[in-house]
């Protein structure tokens, strides 16, 4: 069973979609467990893979009695899913339930828990105190976990720096792309027409959730300078997220509405990349970004910092 936050656009989501596809081909029986629905669910279910939904936490740690009650409820639901499908291995791609799963190793069919880390800055959203607490908890959990999975060497180094001497439990398994998705011919002109773009304009594409770490606002700032010199240049933002409204306001204030296009979450990323000329990755930090690998699979020149 693979556990992740949601089934929207994102590197971890694409990793899970790819991994479960090929696990199924190798006679494994993968299950996906998520907290939120998204456009990837139909693609995963089309492969014959079951998707289960789990209700996340309702209360934060400061509401301790309710927080504990929440964890007990989630633990019971997780145990039910594990027993229902006779799950033996769980690989997590989200932090909230990493430690909770370890408590099910001796009471269910679960034999192995693997924790996957997709970013070198995996504790960026926590306070200094919470970073120390989580580091200690992961260091203690390392005694029971089957292994930590790092998606790149840089992520592996960051894990050791942040958590401690866990080298013997860390496995670096680099992200990979399902190249089969990029072997089909694409009518670039038709795809551009659907987007309202002409056949002779230049298209720069970026793919990623609209959140701070992805650095979209800096790409928009750069676009303002470039478009003034190259008015036929168009920027395609693929993905959705919490900063959507803020970024659209930024685009309007810079008078870029005619050159910057937000297309939201899409399931046809290979076609969009095929219709593009350049791929840009403005992220402030990453692990081993799937979007960049996908652009390479689509044979596009890449600009990244």
Looking at the overall shape, the CATH architecture of the largest domain is 3-Layer(aba) Sandwich
- Looking at CATH, the homologous superfamily of the largest domain is Glycogen Phosphorylase B
What is the highest CATH level, the class of the largest domain? Alpha Beta
| Largest sheet properties | 7 strands, parallel
Give the overall shape.
globular
What's the helix and strand layout?
Layout: E1 2-6, H1 11-25, E2 31-36, H2 40-46, E3 50-53, H3 64-85, E4 89-92, H4 98-102, E5 112-117, H5 128-141, E6 147-150, H6 153-163, E7 170-172, H7 188-194, E8 202-207, H8 216-229, E9 233-238, H9 244-253, E10 260-264, H10 269-274, E11 278-281, H11 290-297, E12 302-304
Parallel strand pairs: 1-2, 1-4, 2-3, 4-5, 5-6, 6-7, 8-9, 8-11, 9-10, 11-12
């Amino acid at each position: 069973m693979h556990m992740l936050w949601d089934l929207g656009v994102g590197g971890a989501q694409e990793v899970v979609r790819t991994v479960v596809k090929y696990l199924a081909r190798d006679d494994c029986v993968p299950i996906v467990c998520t907290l939120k629905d998204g456009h990837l669910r139909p693609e995963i279910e089309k492969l014959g893979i079951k998707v289960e939904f789990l209700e996340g936490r309702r209360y934060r740690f400061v509401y301790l009695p309710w927080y504990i009650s929440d964890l007990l409820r989630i633990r019971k639901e997780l145990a039910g899913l594990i027993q229902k499908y006779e799950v033996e291995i769980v690989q997590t791609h989200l932090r909230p339930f990493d430690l909770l799963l370890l408590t099910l190793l001796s009471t269910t069919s679960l034999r192995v828990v693997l924790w996957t880390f997709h970013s070198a800055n995996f504790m960026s959203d926590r306070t200094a105190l919470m970073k120390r607490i989580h580091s200690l908890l992961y260091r203690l959990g390392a005694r029971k976990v089957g292994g930590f999975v790092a998606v790149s060497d840089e992520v592996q180094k960051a894990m050791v720096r942040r958590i401690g001497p866990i080298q013997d439990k860390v496995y670096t398994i680099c992200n990979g792309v399902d190249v089969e998705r990029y072997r089909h011919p694409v009518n670039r002109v038709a795809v551009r027409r659907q987007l309202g773009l002409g056949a002779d304009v230049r298209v720069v594409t970026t793919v990623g959730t609209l959140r701070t770490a992805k650095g979209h606002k800096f790409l928009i700032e750069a676009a303002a300078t470039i478009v003034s010199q190259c008015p036929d240049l168009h920027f395609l933002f693929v993905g959705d997220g919490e900063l959507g409204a803020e970024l659209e306001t930024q685009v309007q204030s810079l008078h870029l509405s005619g050159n910057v296009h937000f297309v939201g979450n899409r399931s046809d990323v290979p076609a969009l990349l095929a219709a593009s000329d350049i791929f840009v990755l403005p992220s402030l930090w990453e692990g081993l970004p799937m979007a960049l690998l996908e652009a390479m699979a689509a044979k596009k020149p890449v600009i990244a910092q």
